[in-house]
## 1
Amino acid sequence: MLTVEGLTKRFDSVVAVDDVDLELREGEIHGLIGPNGAGKTTTVNLITGELSPTSGTIEFDGSDLVGLSPSSIARRGIGRSFQVVQYFPDMTVRKHLHLAVRESTRTVRSVLDRGADYSDEIQEVAETARLEDELDTIAKNLPHGQKRFLDIAMVLAMDSKVILFDEPAAGLNESETNEVREILEDLRGDYTILIVEHDIDLVRAISDRITVLHNGAVLTTDTPDNVVENTQVREVYLGE
Amino acid sequence: MSDTIADIRGFARGTARRPLLALGVLLVLAVPFLFPSQSDLATEALIFGLFAISVDIALGYAGLLTLAPAAFFGLGSYTVAKIVVDYDMSFWLGFPVAIVLALLLAFAVGYIPIKRRIGHVYFVLFTLAFGAIVYDFTFVTTSLTGGSDGLGFFSPPDLFGIDLGAQTPYYYFTLLLVAVVGFGTYVLIKSDYGDVLHATRQNELRMRYLGYDTNRELMIAWLISAGISAFAGAMYVGSVGIASPSDVSFALTGDVIIWIIVGGTGTLLGPFAAAIGLVFTQEILQSVWLEGYRMLLGILFVVFVFVLPDGLMGLIRGDE
């Protein structure tokens, strides 16, 4: 579904991502882990068009994504969340999801179908993201955990085929992390998911396969159990 | 102070809302009969109200701090004057020509800072440079623009047998056009497009990753703003009968920014009302102290911003 081959990103003399191969199979949850500075977020930024690769290819459903803008890549069906939650502070949760659901914003069309009703889609996404009781809450008034859920909900509302979650549990307490885990489990099979996360227990519990990055390069890609047993991984990532 | 503001807010949003609105509409409709000597000033005030709305689209909704509103306003007035005075062509032809010229120039000015994403500060600098070029252009190209004398004088033609050169007909003509364009702008801003601009202003990164081409959305807002500004300028020259350098001056740019801040940025109605109110206030201050009226306006502005930082609409809406 999404295939990355030979992906490399250099910042002057620093190689942030070094000849990375990554394959996301349809419907799988794929973990991407590694120590700080391993190149995880840079890889996500390359796939989503925030950065341009120095070399390598990113193929999605048969077409090359390299050189496309983030908005163009998003419209092709690749959504993402962020390490630092990105939202619209003065807007309600409902308005966030309305903007995310809306398939087009052509100005004339925007005026002509002012009464367009997306309430069913919004309700469904809000329930999946545990936000059904907060639809009319102004986003800045949500607690941090629910802001994270809102970030996830917006990506779901876009009806993406592939979702890249960049540390979806960052800053969450144990109970909120468990809720994120439940949400991701609910999505299993409906979406192809790449999850970048420091919480190794969370990644191990929900991932079908895990890729470990170290110094920008792929150390291994394997099942969670095999990755945890991998000696090299234990040395560089778990510090054993 | 906060109690007083809360009382005013409660009054304006409560039972007094509809009567106040009705009173305002009646007053606007009856100006030529109640205050015939003020019809010309009221016409100008309406036009400046529409001008403020147009700039509010760029500044208040899209977050594009433009320093060239007067350049587009003046482009409208000079285009109509040029077509009528120098080419002896139809007054009405000037309107579409002015709008097309404004769109072309706005696209040229906005393309690099908006489409090429080189940052908001460059947008400010580009519009500042464009405003300065247009202003100087009116002085150095005397054969084209009439220099400091401007281009005039002329009167608008008859329309369906009605002499628009007379005060009262032109007032109602202006009122009709301002109402139509103002309502169109309101509908646009209340559509999803208004939300798109609002959201883009708050978090452009998130919008891009929701699939929105934010550069395109901002460019559309910028073009709409410039087009309506030119339209307002075209109406203005029909009222005063001459296009002059004051139509493209930075003083006018300063005025429209003040109207927007006083009315409340990103509210449309606030800048519209503030423009009308301040045009009349300026007239009163001029009668009090002709040489120093701008200083008095400046002091009023500082006091106003201190007391009501969110403008008139902020006072009425509160935490809404």
Note: Chain B has a mean pLDDT of 91.
## 2
Amino acid sequence: MAQITLIEAVTQALAYEMAHDDSVVVLGEDVGVNGGVFRATQGLQEKFGPLRVLDTPLDETTIAGTTVGLAVQGMKPVAEAQFEGFIYPMMEHINCHAARMRNRTRGRLSVPAVFRAPWGGGIRAPEHHSEANEHLFTNVPGLRVVLPSSPARAYGLLLAAIRDPDPVIFLEPKRIYRQYKEEVPDDGEALPLDVCFVLRDGTDVTLVTWGAQVKETLEAADELAEQGISAEVIDVATLTPLDFDTIAESVSKTGRCVIVHEAPKTAGFGAEIAARLAEECLYDLLAPVQRVTGYDTHIPLFRLEMKYLPSVERIVAAAQKTLAVS
Amino acid sequence: MSIAAKFEIEYLQYLDPEGKLVVKEKDLPAFAKDLDHMVELYKLMVSTRVFDTKSIALQRTGKLGTYASCLGHEAAHVGIGSAMKDEDVYAPSYREYGAQLYRGVQPREVYTYWGGDERGNDYQKEPARHDFAWSVPIATQCLHAAGSALAFKIRDEKRVAVCTVGDGGSSKADFYGAINIAGAQKLPLVAVIVNNQWAISVPRSIQTGAETLAQKAIAAGLPTIQVDGNDIIAVRKAMEDALERARNGEGASVIEAVTYRLGDHTTADDARRYRENDEVEEARAKEPVKRLRAYLESKKVWDQAKEDAWQAECDEWMDNEVNAYLETEAQPVTAMFDYTFAELPEDLARQRAEAISLESKEH
């Protein structure tokens, strides 16, 4: 069986679903002949033709609004924003229509669409190419916000996102698009969209993260293990609707929690998890919840961006801080 | 210097403001030669107006929330709705009741929506049942129609998506985006700009520097026409031509229907703040219902007795609709949760339970 990268898993999932469901279409800028600027849609137009893999005019508003129309007519569109930093013009259609069509019409119409976008920093890209804005979608009712962090989860979660009857924001951590390969059977098996994934069991501290930071967080767990600290690592994967129970269960066991994300700290999704822990698990906590995040600044241009992104050192230090309390 | 491209915008009118034909009878489109059909169109224009009057009265007496009147748009709206086939899809903005009533939206549903209840968007009758609901964010519906048209093209269905947008809406990226992709992909789309001269308080003159709104279609490579939007024959004819082209795989069209918003933008607006009464009165003289009535009377197919009888019938119809609306109880508190997703997520189910428990404490 072939070993594939995260981005190849995205392509594999798209190809699988397009081959098995005629209503699945892909649309966006450069998704056709060029296969997308990251090659996520490589080879799809050859297989499925220029209408099902549609190069749109260069206008994000058009992509998003057309996607809503396609979905209402029973298609399953997978729209691509070329970079997540370009997603803002799409937000009126995502928030005002995709997310509320079912509610607006009491279930008469719905928008089973996926909005994909390469997300996050760390690839030495120009301005506006490195944003991490999951928090802009996590408080929009009616949306699912999903971030895969491995080839297998990219494949399984994207299949689930396409099959989901409601709109899904699918943010792909481009920093780890080609970080490593793993075996991902092309069996059409979806992963659940309503659970967090516990990637590593531990007893002393819970590290909660998603997207590209799963890499640094697992490395931090290794380092902590060398220091005799047992860290549990949770990949949230589907931010909303949130499977808080998995997080609560882990934190109730370890008594300590560090939340790691690369988006800015204030009102980032980590704040939501920390608030929920305060509401529901306060008496199980042995130390204050810590957050390791991007700063409340714009992500700098690339000469400084690695100083902005959460590092292994910062995660380890935050975990140590929770352990220093008791 | 040579000419790279050249264009002109045709203007279409059959009935002048006095209800007199500006063309020879033999040059009328086929539907307009069928006077029984013209009477049917007239009757719907009248019932639309009775409906509109009733809606405003309901709002003024506190029985309806903010309401957007369609006074003066009856020819444009009925012309659009009556030209479409059942299998087509309509994406309106928020005041095109004449088109929607033709397609099966019930007055009680309109009241229900403006009365603060989402069930008003759950149109029960076909073909309205597969149409879009009202779209408050300006011009966004144009792209939903374009997307629908793309679905029809992908599935090789002979269906057309129709959207309507105002003169103000034609300034928005969504309108340009919709006609642009429709041109690029030859989509079965008809985009109608219902130019009623006013985007709340902003007049057509400072909405754009373009001489006509119809010419915006030229940049998208689409056929386009400006019609007298108070002349239902002109609107309907332009619609039929555009729909036929779209159905035959010849792509999209734009129509600018020139009319006038005789009422306020909505019941929350007071148009006296920004426009002169003289202008409104001048526009009123060109309004659509009066001119079609004059035409039908000149053809001896309509008279005062028929008018009185139909008005009475409309009154009764709308009273029934109003009563049905007023008798509808509010939705249970759970309704705000139950349509957020196809299946209620566990996390949301907890908030739903909390809302239910608050309800039982209140009672």
Note: Chain B touches chain A through 46 residues (CB under 8 Å).
## 3
Amino acid sequence: MIRNLFLVTLVVIVTLILVNVLHKEDQYNLKLEELKHKYALKDVPSVNHNKLPALQKKFNTPQEVTEACLSCHTETHKEVMASSHWNWERTTYVEGRGVSSAGKKNVMNNFCLGTNSNQKSCAKCHIGYGMTSSHFDFNNARNVDCMVCHDNSDEYLKGASMAGYPDRTVNLENVALSVGSPRKSNCGSCHSFGGGGNNVKHGDLDVALNSCNREVDVHMGANGMNLECIACHTAKNHNILGKLYSVSSDNSNRSTCEQCHTATPHLSEVLNRHGSRVSCQTCHIPLYAKVNSTKMSWKWSDAGKLRDGKPYEEEDSLGNHTYMSIKGSFVWKRNVKPDYIWFNGTADHYILGDTIQSIPVKMNTLNGSYHDHSSKIIPVKIHVGDQIYDKKYNRLVQPKLYGEAEGDSAFWKDFKWNEAVAAGMKESGLAYSGQYGFVETIMYWPVNHMVSPKEQAVGCAECHTRQNGRLAKLTGFYLPGRDSNTTQDSIGYWMFILTLLAVFGHATVRVLSNIYRNKYEKQIISYDEDKPEE
Amino acid sequence: MRKVYIYKGFERFWHWSQASLIIFLALTGFEVHGAYTIFGFEKAAEFHRTASWLLIGLIILAIFWHITTGEWRQYIPTTQKLKEQIFYYLSGIFKGGHHPTEKSELSKLNPLQRIVYLGFKLVLVPLTILSGILYMLYKTFDQNNLIVIEDYPLASIAFWHTMGAILLMIFLVVHVYMTTTGKTPTSNINAMITGYEEFDDEEVEIHDKNKEK
């Protein structure tokens, strides 16, 4: 008996141990190791521009630098002038719109609204010189700004409101001699400062990435792989891989994690399978705006308040503007958990002139749903706020914000909405009724950077949980651990409880009846025993 | 009193390993379901998956054993004395009555057990295992052309799997309780541990007679 009992216990224990033994722990991921090795070898330039005779001269204008570049790179301007960095638009097919062009030329955003009538200021981030209005000549190769991307001296700086020209302090000779492959600081000089300040727009593109640690961005971290942007955003013939759906529309030429990591990067099959409906970013970017704050809300309706007839600004404890007379009120956040949406890689945009369809006005619509097989869950920054619109024509309007001086009808100088909008809409070639109001707006920013080390990736239970999971708002599909059939659950629960009660009831009656019977039998027995001996 | 060898070595191994696997699967499974937290979702799901493969392997062995030894015949359902068996549990048992059927090597199961265990083996376990396999392999098309089962909603697969789990738990409670209804409260469980069950001599005679037949 004891031997058998021991054997049974052994079977139970061995079975449970087998579960533990057969369950595999993560092994060494060779794929990742190969990638690390590959990208540890940094490119060494084959040309030192410092030694080129064509660059040993005095440059009076930045255009002369461009000419010097083109004297060797004779066809390169064609590549650059075919890019959206130059054209500020891409022509693509958009569902419901047909073949259309969208880009910074005509797409409205939730920050400084739009470029029309403000080119002189906005062109600080155009790779060209002299964009003062919508009549810029996009065919003049001399105006291509090579230096903003290729300066390796860290000296180059585009001037504020100088139509894309470099700041007057820039030493063009030094910059020209330094040129090389773009670095983080080159890309970041525009992409980190969109919306008028560091990390304002994206939330995941912060000037801090130029020198951050692995915890902030595992790819770009200086104590990690220290990759440049162009390691992923490769740029064959200046056609740069990657786009963001704040202005882009179609599912092509994207820079993806898969291009290096493949679609099955994990050793765990279950994790790989997640990849068919969950983007890499969803789990691997647990937080964005990890270093500096990003703008989460921008209310234009608050703009224009003056103190003693003068514009003013207010700041929070971190030095972020919470109010500016010229722009309105802001909400900033740091270490933000992303929101999550379904996305299939195509988007539509609010294009200047569009009628308002719904409120809040979607500045960009990221298409996708659970039922669309090509959609995946992606993390997004949702930026909300309100904007000025034309009450009569029911559409957003383009105010003229930037102006040289007062009396130029620019809102940032005169603080008069009606005149600013009239001027902006005139420049855009659209009618304005003169009746304006403010309408709620919303904009979606896919989060792709600030990838955390894998140890900090979002854990299973952060989504597979009954309450307050990261995907709590993403309903309409069955997520194990979060969803259950509540009717089935409560019926099952009560059936189980009733069974227990029935069993206990049955047992109780058995025990009681047994006791009763035993007494009865004992009585008989005692009767026998009590019989007088004969 | 005589001891009769009722449960063979494999049978006992199968019974106890299956019991521990099912209880472990329930423990981890209801955690995956979101009912409570013990191991954490990730570990619970991983353990559940490993244990499920072990159970599937064990059941394949058991099926093989049942076929090759002919033991499957033990589960051929019968209505003979079924009513009496039910009435025994509902009233006879309280009056100190005897089991209406006798256990023997050739007939280990009473008519009620036959039907319930057959249902367990042919309905409950297949339902849970098949829905579990669908659940485990639930996939969708992606760039790598992984298989698609997605056209059948996961909510339904999960429903049937949970249904199986709930019924199994109810089975477990009743089953464990029923083991106490033998000659003594522990005689059935003893038999499943040692393989031997003690019979009164007259029963053994019947048993021997059956054997002679």
Note: DSSP finds 16 helices and 15 strands in chain A.
## 4
Amino acid sequence: MRPVLEARNLTKIYDGADAPALDRLNLIVPAGEVFCLLGPNGAGKTTTVNLFLNFIQPTAGQALVCGIDAAVDPSAARARLAYIPEQVMLYGALTGLENLQYFTEISGAEAPRDTLLSLLAAAGLPSDAVHRQVRGYSKGMRQKVGVAIALARRAQALVLDEPTSGLDPLAANEFAALIERLRKDGMAVLMVTHDLFLAKQCGTRIGIMAQGRLASVFGADDVDHLGLERAYLDLFARAA
Amino acid sequence: MSDLALAPLAAATPAKRRWRVVRAVAAKEWLELFRDRRLVWLCAFVVALMLAALAFGYVENARILSERDAAARADRELWIGQSAKNPHAAAHFGQYAFKPLSPLALADPGVDAYVGSAVWLEAHKQNETQFKQARDGGVGARLGSLSLAFILQTIAPLIVILMGFASFSGERESGTLKQLLSVGAKPRDILAGKTLALIGAIFALLAPALVGAALALIFFVDRERLSLSDQFIRLGALGAAYAAYLAGFALLALGVSALARNSRAALVTLLAFWLANSFLAPRLATDAARALAPTPTWQEFRAGVAQDKSKTFGHDESHPGFIAFRDETLKKYGVTRIKDLPVNFRGLALRKDDESGYAIFDRHFGALQSVFERQDALRAAPGFLFPLLALRPISMAFAGVDSRSQFDFATSAEAHRRDIQNEVSDNIIHFAHDNGYVAGPELWRKIAAFAYRAPGAGFALDHSALPIVALLGWLALAAAFALFAARRLRPV
């Protein structure tokens, strides 16, 4: 299948660092796949996300989005991506609906008001919060607006960095169902998470990163929850 | 999850996409600005301050105009009411030429307070202007008044900086820049949107001042003496110049905000530039201009004029020049004695002496004006870096209160003085048959009152080429810097 997200020998060494944060990562996420990246803090997961979004420049290698090198044409690459960070940051003086409308317009899409309201409802934002200024939102509510922004983009790829952080279990479960639906629609999803349960629930492939490298990759059907947990712990026990 | 939520959204056409992004960014910035009551109140305060300055300028100008009109009328009455006397004695009696007040001086008082408002017109001498408000007004007047020009030149850029310094850095700190760039928005489109928003804010600041000034002009302009349309052209030019000046500050603030590590660093950098532009650069540029194009002291200047004037004969009948002129005149009329001349020799000698003096005055005052113009050019040249140096001369020129307008008035006053001289000398030449000749009110009335018509807006434009180029250079440089900074924009 045609790769939507692809890392080719992707390497990042931060200024002043001795070891690479990301070391020659090779990764392909085709359409209709959810690739979950697991790993402890500092393993290189968020660096990978930042390189696909060209928030940082790679030291070597390429991060390709639909064949577009994110370092060469970041706007074109980002236009094909939707991104939900761990902490969705919104404009506090604007309402949830105004934030969604703004980010949708900025992405170049047309968004009728009814559609935007439906997206917010679909993301689980309470209807009484839609017209309130975001500065009064909880973290979970902000996350839901972030989900609505990503949905409105209708991008070919979705990059998620700890997306369910701050969501209640019900919302997290709804979120997992949403990811599955997007996958079936042909979206390529790269999800960074610490949540082994979520990774097993959503992922079609699961990778475990350690010290900037992709140490292990499992097919979702090749391992159960316990097996994934054991593999994760064994990997870091060996490293220790 | 509803089907509607996942339905594809129609993409904007490529041609409209960019404008939609720019418009969306500008609208969001405006909404945030409007909801941030602190900035709204600050802008309202500045607008109120500008309108107050305008009102003060209006009242002050009305007072000055009334005083000058009254003084001009009184001086005219004195001239006409003088007793019968020899016409040359009347030329020594003298009269004032009052400079009419430029209506737009209510917005920018310019150099009027420093260069004087009236010239004393008398025989043999070209005088400098007198009645300098700055000299008569004490220390307070020398510090400058709270004029509309001062507010727009000094305080308005500060407001633009306060509105713009956190445009990018604040978004980076709050994390929204990451979110913004992640949706594929191009930094240059975000920059364009933020620039549009700031320019909108600048327009909101300028519009009340321009409307207030326009209303003041409608009430203030004496349409018998001045063209209202010319004043509106001047006001339009002032509006454009101030808009360019402040737009440059908006672009600079955005550029610095995009490059700075954080909002605090952006604010400190911009405030340092504001201080340099508002206070340091004008002082240094003036000192540098004086050093590179030094002006003589007034004593040196007067001594130079006096030295050249000593070569003319004046009233000295033993002066070789007088003797030569007398001999030449006698020869011309074919007589040997002055009393045989068909015209009054004293009148001829006065006219000859005056004409010799005109060339001397023209040479010395022309040279002095050239030095002033060179100083003006030297001061305005760095205006592309420190835009106040470019804006000030443009503002004063279009308000009709710059040194060139003053020179034009002085030249016109001198031409009037020469008309008086010529008139009285001609009267003596043709009517005085002996030394006891006197003229009366008919002659005094025949000499028209001084009526100066200030040149139109084209005059200001002609003499503002360098500062206009410098101001446009500032705008272009600020835009290039902002674009450069936007290209280097990083969300983390």
Note: Residues 90-154 of chain A form one domain.
